[in-house]
Structure to design on (568 residues):
């Protein structure tokens, strides 16, 4: 007997829909429901909520209108969507770097004001300090390195998906990720939060 | 040269902790995403025209610019195939043409279908003689959008289209579908880009309602006609024979197929269920499908629903205003044929005509 189809959506790492159907509203409604929220969160962490809102909208609109270019053989739909978003994000590199510097600067102020209180506060300050140091270190990365790192860490894509999203070999992703993480582990702890706001801007 | 051994260095765990902590407090405004979703669905041809050009009914119509490369519903019969040609979001109304009175086409005994609450229709389908075809002449409106290298560079067009589909008596025999564009309008954007999106005439053959190539989404392999899987096999005698004969069980099957499509489940159930109503759907199966669709929660059944050309139909409608989606299926109460549908709360209703002809490409005398 012919089965009517799968009762549920496939997991993201197996989601390779045929976007060529006659009812794109249906498929793209599903894609939006599955992927828009995590995409928004990922983008908001990078460039802020308002810009992320616009980028999510643009990402899905571009995806809709370029759906005939999506090839399920080449990758899962999640990486395709994040690839589109990453391209759109290029226009906002300056905003992202400026925001990272602002975060680092704010954490520097917090550290100076609150350090030395009780253990809870100290722990919070430590975590905030590390995040601030990381922000400064992220701002110093080149765009490609930052994309690989954050697509992996914040978006949760695996190396294959990052490769699909950025259209680069998976080996490049892995080596770049290894190099970037090593650099951050070394640089972030000694970073004195603010080192020139515009450094690293596109 | 840097000597990592002489400097403080985070562990992998510390780095991951810092990554996790950095800007971890961002949140997502549901209202905002809901609005974005509504715009996307409108752009995909879900809802209908609005004042904002970005939300004009948009759907792929230009076969060169926008037509999907891999039609998912390639084996669907006339209704869906026409939609594939003319675009989602359009609405087609099918009328019982004079050709159904062709004496060579023998009628089945009508099957009375009780849709509940006093709503009754009859399923009365013609039996095609060898060499005859059911012809669906459809007329629809659709839209298309094109986004340039700059995502703000958006061009939108509206296209009128006419599609004729000849369905053979045997599913696996040759089919034919023609498309002829009608009036055309560049709604917004670059006129030259818009002009390139103008639909072009087509004349496609195929078997099993599959016009053009169909490929497996996972493997990329070309799926030969008449060998689909799941929904793509709709139309085969085996598919219809495998459907539950109990309307409630059939409804459950349709509901199961809806899965997590993201659309309103009841709207999606009506959409999916309507796709089972093909020209080759056996009358008794058609009757059960209609009974099943009447079981969809929230479905509104209206007798004598007016169509744009002045005829009336029995309408089955599901509206999900919160999601800004709706679907209305118009059924000929005398035959059980799908004589139209409306995909979106404000969508236009398009029209077409059913008839029986004696050869592929023929049309009944008007």
């Amino acid at each position: 007997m012919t089965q009517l189809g799968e009762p549920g959506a496939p997991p993201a790492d197996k989601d390779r829909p045929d976007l060529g159907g006659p009812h794109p509203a249906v498929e793209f409604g599903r894609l939006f429901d599955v992927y828009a929220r995590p995409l928004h969160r990922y983008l908001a962490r990078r460039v802020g909520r308002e810009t992320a809102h616009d980028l999510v909208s643009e990402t899905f609109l571009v995806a809709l209108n370029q759906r005939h270019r999506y090839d399920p053989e080449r990758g899962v739909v999640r990486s395709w969507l994040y690839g589109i978003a990453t391209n759109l994000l290029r226009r906002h590199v300056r905003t992202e770097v400026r925001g990272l510097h602002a975060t680092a600067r704010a954490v520097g102020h917090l550290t100076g004001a609150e350090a030395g209180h009780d253990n809870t506060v100290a722990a919070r300050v430590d975590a905030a300090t590390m995040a601030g140091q990381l922000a400064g270190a992220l701002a110093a990365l080149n765009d490609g390195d930052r994309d690989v790192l954050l697509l992996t860490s914040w978006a949760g894509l695996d190396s294959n998906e990052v490769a699909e999203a950025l259209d680069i070999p998976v080996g490049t992703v892995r080596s770049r990720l290894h190099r970037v993480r090593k650099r951050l582990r070394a640089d972030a702890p000694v970073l004195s939060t603010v080192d020139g706001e515009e450094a690293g801007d596109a | 040269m840097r000597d990592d051994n002489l400097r403080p260095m985070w562990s992998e765990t510390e780095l991951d902790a810092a990554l996790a902590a950095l800007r971890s407090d961002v949140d997502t405004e549901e209202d905002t995403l809901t609005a974005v979703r509504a715009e996307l669905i409108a752009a995909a041809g879900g809802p209908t025209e609005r004042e904002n050009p970005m939300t004009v009914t948009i759907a792929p119509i230009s076969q060169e610019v926008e037509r999907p490369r891999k039609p998912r519903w390639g084996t669907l019969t006339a209704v869906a195939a026409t939609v594939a040609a003319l675009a989602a979001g359009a609405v087609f109304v099918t009328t019982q043409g004079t050709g159904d009175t062709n004496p060579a086409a023998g009628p089945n005994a009508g099957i009375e279908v009780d849709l509940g609450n006093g709503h009754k229709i009859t399923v009365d389908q013609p039996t095609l003689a060898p060499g005859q075809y059911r012809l669906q002449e459809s007329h629809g409106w659709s839209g298309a959008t094109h986004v340039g290298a700059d995502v703000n560079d958006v061009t939108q067009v509206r296209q009128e289209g006419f599609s004729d589909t000849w369905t053979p008596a045997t599913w696996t025999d040759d089919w034919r579908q023609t498309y002829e564009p009608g009036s055309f309008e560049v709604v917004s954007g670059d006129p030259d880009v818009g002009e390139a999106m103008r639909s072009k005439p087509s004349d496609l053959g195929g078997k099993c309602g599959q016009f053009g190539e169909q490929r497996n989404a996972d493997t990329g392999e070309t799926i030969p006609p008449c060998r689909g899987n799941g929904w793509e096999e709709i139309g085969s005698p085996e598919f219809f024979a495998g459907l539950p004969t109990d309307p409630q069980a059939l409804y459950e099957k349709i509901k199961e197929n809806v899965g997590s499509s993201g659309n309103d489940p009841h709207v999606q159930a009506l959409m999916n269920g309507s796709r089972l109503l093909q020209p080759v759907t056996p009358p008794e199966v058609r009757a059960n499908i209609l009974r099943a669709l009447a079981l969809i929660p929230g479905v509104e059944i209206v007798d004598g629903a007016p169509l744009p050309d002045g005829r009336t139909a029995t309408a089955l409608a599901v509206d999900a205003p919160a999601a800004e989606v709706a679907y209305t299926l118009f059924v000929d109460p005398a035959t059980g044929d799908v004589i139209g549908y409306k995909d979106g709360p404000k969508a236009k209703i398009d029209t077409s005509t059913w008839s029986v002809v004696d050869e592929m490409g023929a049309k009944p005398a008007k």
User: Anything to note?
Assistant: Chain A touches chain B through 71 residues (CB under 8 Å). Chain A has eight helices and no strands. The first helix of chain A runs from residue 24 to 47. Residues 19-91 of chain A form a domain with the Rna Polymerase Sigma Factor; Chain: A fold (CATH 1.10.1740).
